[in-house]
Design goal:
This protein is an alpha/beta fold. It folds into two domains: 242 residues, TIM Barrel; 67 residues, Arc Repressor Mutant, subunit A (Orthogonal Bundle). It has ten helices and twelve strands. The strands form three sheets. It has an eight-stranded mixed beta sheet, sandwiched between helices. Strands 3-4 form a two-stranded parallel sheet. The radius of gyration is 19 Å and the shape is globular.
């Protein structure tokens, strides 16, 4: 299965060509809102989790760029925490040698305290950092981090990244009803953002996101629009609510994947990982397709042992 996938239409990044460099659910966190279910390997160890041939990656990238009329960003993301891969800096350098398309890294931010991570990330054009908690209590409740990760280390790591980074840094706050959306917590967010916003180039955008995809937890509810607008007003002009945009199917590829998923789920309930492995399609493409099928009522899901299973 190729580590290059897409391009897929993202709510934040338009048409994004993804590069997935960490295996399924190897992560620094075990977030209660993660659509992939429970983290199977919670770690802060950086190593070569996937052996990647740089020349093959570059050739695959060139082909993807040639075959697709529109790619807005090339995004390092995937089914785990991409900064755990010790080669991410080398890979970013390789990508930037063959294209001017902006390179984005999506990270939970849990190992920004490591200098090697910051040195790698400063090669990117945009770093989007999850910032779901303004204190340790909420960090443990929402993100359920590895034991070596704490809020103060996250904040200091972010400040140090800001001090050396020349690109654009976006924060994303996943807002969960009755956990991190109360006014007191939002005031904590604001105070921290104000504190760090004058370091380096500062924070360019603050994305207020909600768990529009089904998760494996019963504790995840979406704040109402009135509350979201209140939070946006409190955090100021850089804050924006990430609204769901319906994806229009163009060409046969996505339609074929939708049909394949439906046919597979007719036989037995299947998880995202089951679908990805059976159809040999990247997990991120599966997630995008499942979202559409759920909205259209073509699939249902149930949760068993913290894993979502999809069926017709």
């Amino acid at each position: 299965m190729s580590i290059i996938y897409g391009p897929v239409l993202s709510r934040r990044f338009g048409y994004s060509l993804g590069i997935d460099i960490v295996p399924y659910k190897i992560c620094t966190y075990d977030c209660i809102y993660c659509q992939l279910g429970k983290t199977t390997n919670k770690t802060v160890e950086r190593k070569r989790y996937i052996s990647i041939d740089l020349a093959e990656l570059i050739e695959g990238l060139k082909k993807a760029i040639k075959d697709n009329k529109r790619i807005d960003y090339i995004t390092f993301s995937g089914a785990g925490e991409p900064t755990l891969n010790q080669d991410i800096g080398i890979l970013i350098d390789g990508v930037k040698k063959v294209t001017n398309i902006p390179v984005v890294v999506l990270t939970g931010g849990g190992i920004l305290y490591k200098e090697s991570v910051r040195e790698d990330l400063k090669k990117a054009d945009i770093v989007k950092i999850s910032f779901d908690a303004p204190n340790d209590k909420i960090l443990r409740k929402v993100n359920r981090p590895h034991r070596e990760i704490g809020f103060s280390k996250n904040k200091e790591g972010l400040k140090k990244l800001l001090s050396i980074f020349k690109g654009r840094i976006w924060l994303e706050i996943m807002l969960i009803k009755d956990i991190n959306d109360d006014i007191g917590t939002v005031e904590e967010f604001k105070n921290i953002i104000d504190e760090i916003d004058d370091i380096g180039t500062g924070i360019e955008r603050i994305h207020l996101n909600t768990a529009v995809r089904p998760t494996g937890s019963k504790d995840v509810s979406i704040p109402d629009l009135k509350r979201l607008n209140k939070i946006k007003a409190m955090l100021g002009r850089k804050a924006e609510i990430i609204r769901y945009k319906r994806i229009e199917v163009s060409g046969s590829g996505r339609k074929d994947l939708s049909n394949d998923i439906i046919e597979l789920s007719k036989r037995r309930p299947v998880s995202i990982k089951d679908i990805s492995e059976s159809l040999e399609v990247n997990i991120n493409e599966v997630i995008k397709c499942l979202r559409e099928l759920l909205i259209e009522g073509k699939l249902k899901y149930k949760i068993y042992n913290s894993t979502k299973y999809y069926y017709v």
